[in-house]
Design brief:
about 190 residues; alpha+beta; Protein Transport Mog1p, Chain A; seven-stranded antiparallel β-sheet; elongated
C-alpha cells in the first residue's frame, strides 16, 4: 500500500513541475523586453548642401585565384600582375598585384598542408611588429612587411591561408580590403 502513495505523489510532483515550467516559458520570463521609447517632438533641421565627396570604387571584383576574390579595392588601381603560385610540395593557390605609380595592393591565397592550422600558417609569413587580431572572425596577425608596407595574414579555414600587403600610402585601406574577401565554403 505504501508504494502506491509514493507513485501518486511522484506523479503529482511531475505534474506540478511540468505546469510550473510551462507557465515560466509562456510568461516570457527571461526574454529580452523591448523598451518603449516615446518619440520626441519633430524638429526642423537645416543642413548645408553636401560638400563633394570622393567615393571609392565599391564595384571592383579583384580575383586572386579561381575561388578567392576581393570585392573592394581603392580607386585607381589596375591589375599589374598575378597568377598561380609556383609549384611547391603541399601548396597551391594564386596571387595578384594591383597598383599605380605610387600605390599597390598584393594578395595571395594558399591551399594545402601549409595552412593545416593557424600555428603552421603563421610561421610561413614574416611580419615585423606583428600583433594578433581577427579578420571576419578568423585568426590573423597584422604588422609591417619586411618588403615594405603593411600586411595582414590569416587562416581563412583549415587548409586555406591568405595574406594581403599594401603600400604605406594605403595602410588605412588594409583592413577594409581584407574584410572584403569572399571565398566560398569548401574551396
Amino acid at each position: 500500500m505504501g508504494q502506491w502513495w509514493r507513485a501518486i505523489l511522484a506523479f503529482l510532483a511531475l505534474g506540478v513541475t511540468a505546469g510550473i515550467i510551462y507557465e515560466l516559458f509562456s510568461s516570457g520570463f527571461g526574454r529580452v523586453q523591448q523598451a518603449v521609447v516615446a518619440s520626441p517632438e519633430p524638429t526642423r533641421v537645416v543642413t548645408p548642401p553636401p560638400a563633394p565627396v570622393r567615393v571609392a570604387s565599391t564595384t571592383t571584383l579583384a580575383v586572386i585565384s579561381d575561388s578567392f576574390w576581393l570585392t573592394y579595392l581603392p580607386a585607381g588601381l589596375d591589375r599589374t600582375g598575378g597568377g598561380s603560385i609556383e609549384p611547391e610540395p603541399g601548396v597551391q593557390g594564386g596571387w595578384a598585384r594591383f597598383g599605380s605609380a605610387s600605390r599597390f595592393v598584393e594578395a595571395q591565397v594558399e591551399h594545402g598542408t601549409v595552412a593545416a592550422d593557424w600555428a603552421t600558417y603563421r610561421k610561413r609569413a614574416t611580419v615585423v611588429d606583428a600583433r594578433n587580431t581577427t579578420i571576419r572572425g578568423k585568426p590573423a596577425m597584422i604588422g609591417t612587411s619586411p618588403g615594405g608596407g603593411r600586411m595582414i595574414v590569416w587562416l581563412e579555414r583549415v587548409g586555406t591561408g591568405a595574406w594581403i600587403r599594401v603600400s604605406d600610402s594605403l595602410s588605412k585601406e588594409l583592413l577594409p580590403i581584407a574584410a572584403s574577401v569572399k571565398a566560398p565554403v569548401g574551396d
